[in-house]
Write a structure and sequence with these properties.
This protein is mostly helical. Helix content is 61%, strand content 0%. The chain has helices spanning 8-20, 24-37, 42-49, 53-66, 87-96, 102-113, 119-129, 146-164. It is flat.
Length: 165
């Protein structure tokens, strides 16, 4: 079993990277290192992280040799959207005229920018980049009859409440 000494600062840094890292493989490596920092045995780490014994040993050796950089933490690749230059233009357009459906939004984006998006890509762009939320349409309830409400309150509800007291 590999012995590694962790400081509180190192544990906090590994945990923060584990929680924030976008890559699945690197996240798994950070999870293994974090579990080791908590003092778990290799068998427990294998079971919790659902990885092999060889992988646990390899990840820990890599961390021991080169720290977080050896696990691939510094190699973050964040793709840039082709719609990024048009972000403000699309947002202001949607604030003036919100689209009713995702396909309507996709057509409007294509008309504004010339970039065609599929429904899921358009939905992700609107939600993640523009901060838009989907609103479900519902039926507006009819006006309540105040006479019937007063009658129900006086004749049915209040006698029941008094009886319970």
């Amino acid at each position: 079993m590999l012995k590694i000494e962790f400081t509180e600062k190192a544990i906090d840094e590994v945990y923060q990277q584990f929680m924030e890292h976008p890559s699945g493989v690197t996240k798994k490596k950070l999870h293994v290192v974090y579990l080791k920092a908590l003092g778990l045995s290799h068998k427990e780490i294998e079971r919790i992280a659902r990885t092999s014994a060889d992988s646990v040993t390899r990840y820990l050796k890599d961390y021991n040799a080169g720290g977080l950089a050896a696990l691939g933490v510094s190699r973050t690749h964040r793709p840039v959207s082709s719609l990024q230059p048009y972000h403000d233009q699309i947002k202001s357009h949607f604030l003036k005229q919100p689209p009713h459906t995702v396909s309507e939004a996709s057509h409007e984006i294509e008309a504004l920018t010339g970039i065609k998006l599929g429904p899921s890509a358009c939905r992700d762009f609107m939600r993640k980049r523009l901060g838009m939320k989907f609103r479900k349409m519902a039926v507006i309830p009819a006006k309540a009859d105040p006479k019937k409400q007063a009658e129900f309150l006086n004749n049915q509800l209040e006698p029941l409440l008094e009886e319970e007291k």
